[in-house]
Design a protein that fits this description.
312 residues; alpha+beta; Triger factor/SurA peptide-binding fold; 4-stranded antiparallel β-sheet; 3-stranded antiparallel β-sheet; 11 helices
Length: 312
């Protein structure tokens, strides 16, 4: 059966799911009242029918399913008081649209419902309730929820880690080329020169001046500045040497990329995504939080104004 149709049949969509893993009995028992909601009742057979409807969600907890049914009773009563309803034409149009989207005719639709243990009339009742609850939710919850930019900016400023990007390092490099056919003596001389440069840096000589004096290779014209790099994006040898340094420190010479290197760790930073890049995401998050909190408070108020007996 098409997943979209199953989703509608299972009544999942706009409302918050109240089911948790547990166990639901499939045995037939003598019918009895399991809850009273104002002047309405919920029977064990009602509960079992609801659990059968939700069987695609996995194992169910009787108590949580019943609480969800009580909440829907309260909301349907609120819809009636507020004059929120669904006309027969609207219901017929909704069903026609579902049939069309699932590439079925009415006969196939009825057969698909039968496989789920539903008649078309039962489905109409369930769908009417779902549409009514959706309209009620929009009227009393969504319509009253707003998030402005000031709220989003405050959230952004109070949660910097949420929008942090990977740590970056800025390294300055002195590079001394080792010729391809260098003799051991030549290699030792270049290594010794790199060691001398390192000792001069350790004594406090200006690193940029040392770059201009002795460095070779492409970065020499940039005063050895390799720019900001994400941790892990640099050459492994440079990454490892930089990891042992604090900003302002220089490394001892190491071989990398065909020559000897002495690096200085200039800066370590954790950049943050600009507010304008994440504003819509934040406003969506805050809106959803407000919607949920408003819904919970509204539902709690409905419960507080009602007579409810849970007899499970």
């Amino acid at each position: 059966m098409n997943k979209n149709l199953l989703a509608v049949i299972a009544l999942i969509g706009i409302f918050f799911a109240n089911t948790m893993p547990g166990s639901a009995s499939g045995s037939v028992v003598v019918d009895r009242v399991v809850a009273v909601v104002n002047d309405e009742i919920i029977t064990m057979s009602d509960l079992q029918r609801e659990e059968a409807l939700k069987k695609h969600d996995g194992a169910l907890d009787d108590r949580l399913v019943l609480e969800d049914m009580i909440d829907r009773k309260l909301q349907m009563a609120a819809a009636k008081r507020a004059g929120v309803d669904v006309t027969d034409k609207e219901l017929a149009d909704a069903i026609a649209d579902i049939i069309k989207r699932n590439n079925m005719d009415m006969l196939q639709f009825g057969q698909a419902l039968a496989k789920e243990g539903l008649t078309i009339e039962q489905y109409r009742v369930e769908l009417r309730e779902q549409i009514t609850l959706s309209r009620l939710f929009n009227k009393f919850i969504r319509s009253g929820v707003n998030v402005d930019e000031a709220e989003a900016r405050a959230f952004y400023q109070n949660n910097p880690k949420t929008y942090s990007l990977p740590e970056e390092i800025r390294v300055r490099q002195i590079f001394l080329t080792l010729p391809d056919n260098a003799t051991p003596e030549q290699a030792a001389a270049i290594r010794e020169k790199a060691q001398s440069v390192y000792l001069r840096a350790q004594k406090g000589e200006d690193f940029i001046r040392l770059v201009r004096e002795v460095s070779q290779g492409a970065t020499a014209s940039q005063d050895g500045d390799l720019g900001f790099m994400k941790r892990g994006d640099a050459l492994p040898e440079i990454e490892e040497a930089a990891r042992a340094l604090k900003p302002g420190d220089s490394s001892s010479p190491f071989f990398c990329a065909g020559g000897y290197n002495v690096i200085k760790l200039e800066e370590v930073r954790t950049p943050v995504r600009p507010f304008e890049k994440v504003k819509d995401e934040i406003m969506k998050t805050l809106y959803e939080q407000k919607v949920e909190n408003t819904y919970r408070s509204w539902l709690q108020a409905l419960r507080g104004d009602s007579h409810i007996e849970n007899r499970l």
